[in-house]
Specification:
By secondary structure, the chain is mainly β. The chain has two domains: 6-75, no CATH class; 83-194. It is built from two helices and 13 strands, in the order E-E-H-E-E-E-E-E-E-E-E-E-H-E-E. The protein has helices spanning 22-29, 161-168; strands at residues 6-9, 15-18, 44-53, 66-75, 83-85, 101-102, 111-113, 119-126, 134-137, 146-147, 153-160, 171-174, 188-194. Strands 10-11-8-13 form a four-stranded antiparallel sheet. The protein has a three-stranded antiparallel sheet with strand order 6-12-9, with no helix packed on it. A hairpin with a 5-residue loop joins strand 10 and strand 11. The longest helix is centred in the N-terminal third of the chain and has 8 residues, at 22-29. The two termini are 47 Å apart.
């Protein structure tokens, strides 16, 4: 309520302002704003139509004189980064262990989501590394992981979230078989980059 005059939101797409002088109407129109909480995947335009009806109509559409003007709104995309969820507990690797150990197995419940994308790529790095530490791929996936020549990083090409997660699950760690690995912690970093290249 504005000094006996009203601004009535008639749904999300329409605002009705009534009972105002021209001066008051001009002021209140300056307070009308556009906002959207949607996540867009492509550039769009919205059009806002302003229709004024003079007092002779007493608010009844099509009975008084009307004037219409339009304002176009261009939706500028903002890239939402991907979200990686799940439990990242420490991985244990024993001296003399023959088989490599999975770094991101099914027990972690890894999940990927993105408000405005359905594809992503991934990179896994090992640092620091000691002795003959390497990352290996043990298993197959639709989007197979590729191990770098030095064995210290793995890349997964862009694909659907489910395929990338399946490929991540094939990445394992293998260390030296002697005591040179004892007492030294390693850090493995998983980086997800979405289809719009915002990591």
């Amino acid at each position: 309520m504005f000094d006996g005059q009203t601004l009535v939101p008639a749904g999300f797409n329409t605002v009705v302002i009534s009972g105002m002088t021209f001066a008051s109407l001009s002021t209140e129109l300056g307070n009308v704003q556009f906002q959207s909480n949607a996540h867009y995947t492509e550039s769009l335009e919205r059009r806002v139509n302003l229709v004024t009806i003079d007092g002779s109509s007493r608010g009844q559409v099509n009975t008084g004189e009307t004037t219409r003007v339009s304002v176009d709104i261009t939706i500028v995309l903002f890239n939402d980064p991907p979200v990686l969820s799940g439990s990242m507990d420490p991985v244990m690797y024993q001296e003399g262990q023959v088989l490599p150990v999975a770094l991101f197995d099914g027990t972690m419940g890894l999940g990927l989501s993105d408000a405005d994308d359905v594809n992503c790529s991934a990179n896994v790095t090992l640092a620091p590394s000691f002795s003959s530490d390497i990352l290996v791929v043990n298993g197959s996936a639709t989007h197979p992981a590729t191990v770098a020549a030095d064995g210290l990083s793995v890349t997964i090409p862009e694909g659907p979230f489910a395929d990338v997660l399946a490929s991540i699950a094939t990445i394992h760690f293998q260390g030296a078989s002697d005591g040179s690995i004892a007492g030294e912690n390693r850090t493995v970093t998983l980086t997800i980059t979405d289809g719009y290249s915002q990591g």
